[in-house]
Design goal:
380 residues, alpha+beta, Aminopeptidase, 3 domains, eight-stranded mixed β-sheet, seven-stranded mixed β-sheet, 18 strands
């Protein structure tokens, strides 16, 4: 056995053969993983395609996509994990566990504070990953269209001439990925969003660009309702809602859903004002905080604005492997990896995560949960 380690250039085709076999060809699908996930499978990301080899060929793989995120002006780095697989004849030997341990160490060394995982299985739960984050899921049916302004917006399929407009409106989002222009070029033409066939639609009124949506195209299954989901949106919120009716007409659907992170209070309020109710759900997949003290150091400006500087300077954030301690004065709050992620990024459940009535827990409730990033077009 060799590895875990990054992929060498001459091994790239063998890695593609592995992931295409497991995720595509074994399900009678075309071998197109390179096209589906351009952030993962490109020759600039070889060191993040972590592999184990037997007999000089890759037999197990984890893919990492590293990216910066911006939250209210604070910047941190995350690692998104996907395409985790092993050839069938080599499963059950602990290779995926070795790769995941290696991946967590690499992400920490690379300065990533949070790991987002596309899966929810035991492999990730054993490593301390958990469901976390909080989004409002709104479902709009055809009967609801009367609630929208009849003077709807116009929507058009993405064209390159609107690339700069898309970048411009996305840059105004308060919680977002840092996406260089070349990243936008990679993902806007894949025809996918969050692992489903999708279309990028731009929103216009009187020739003015107002925003865009990534809309998952409903699957053609006899006897099934045609349901679409907005995988990502950006721009003027009223204009986005004005695009709802044109989307229903374009795809002949019975339902359209929006997943709105809890920090987008304006959008949530606007929908509730129209009489819509939401269910509270977590960010898809699971997550793990890798380096808690560094994450909190990067969010120090955010914390200072929620509290006062004197109080924020007295808070201590410590970590020893998967045990975490938050101190304030003579008080300490101790927790494990799973509970920490749910405290820091919120949880969709109604249960109270911090039941203690001490001063330190009151302070933590002032600063948490932090806004969590919706994977959207960066999903791997």
């Amino acid at each position: 056995m060799e590895g875990p380690r990054g992929t060498r250039k001459e091994e790239f085709d063998q890695v593609l053969k592995l992931v295409n076999y497991v995720f595509r060809e074994s399900n009678n699908q075309p071998p197109d993983m390179e096209k589906r996930y351009p952030f993962l499978f490109n020759e600039d990301n070889l060191e993040n395609l972590r592999i184990i080899l037997k007999d000089n060929r890759p037999i197990s793989h984890i893919g990492i996509s590293e990216a910066e995120i911006i939250v209210y002006g604070c910047r941190t780095k995350i690692g998104s994990i996907g395409s985790v697989c092993t050839y069938p004849q080599y499963r059950g030997r602990g290779f995926a566990t070795l790769l995941l341990e290696n991946t967590i160490k690499k992400l920490d060394d690379d300065g990533a504070d949070v790991m987002l995982v596309s899966g929810e299985g035991g492999l990730y739960k054993r490593a301390g990953c958990t469901e976390a984050g909080r989004v409002h899921k709104f479902r709009i049916s055809g009967d609801d269209l009367k609630r929208f302004n009849p003077q709807a917006m116009e929507v058009f399929p993405y064209k390159e001439k609107n690339l700069e407009n898309i970048v411009r409106v996305y840059q105004k989002e308060r919680v977002r990925f840092f996406r260089p222009l070349e990243d936008f070029k990679k993902i806007l033409t894949t025809g996918l969003a969050m692992d489903r066939k999708a279309e990028i639609l731009t929103i216009h009124k009187a020739n003015e660009f107002l925003g865009y949506l990534a809309v998952q195209i409903p699957e053609e299954k006899e006897g099934k309702e045609r349901i679409s989901n907005v995988a990502e949106y950006s721009g003027i919120r009223r204009a986005i809602l004005g695009a709802v009716k044109p989307i229903f007409d374009r795809y002949d659907i019975q339902e359209l859903s929006f997943n709105i992170p809890f920090h987008d209070a304006e959008f949530i309020y606007t929908l509730k004002e129209k009489g819509f109710k939401s269910s509270i759900e977590n960010i898809p997949g699971t997550m793990k905080i890798i380096n808690f003290p560094r994450l909190m150091a990067r969010f120090r400006p955010y914390i200072e604005e929620r509290l006062d500087k004197k109080t924020s300077d007295l808070i201590r954030f410590n970590q020893e492997k998967d045990r975490f301690t938050i101190g304030f004065g003579g008080e300490e709050f101790n927790t494990d990896a799973r509970r920490l992620a749910q405290i820091v990024f919120g949880t969709p459940g109604k249960e109270e995560i911090m039941v203690e009535s001490r001063k330190i827990t009151k302070i933590l409730k002032e600063i948490f949960p932090l806004p969590s990033i919706w994977p959207g077009l960066n999903c791997v």
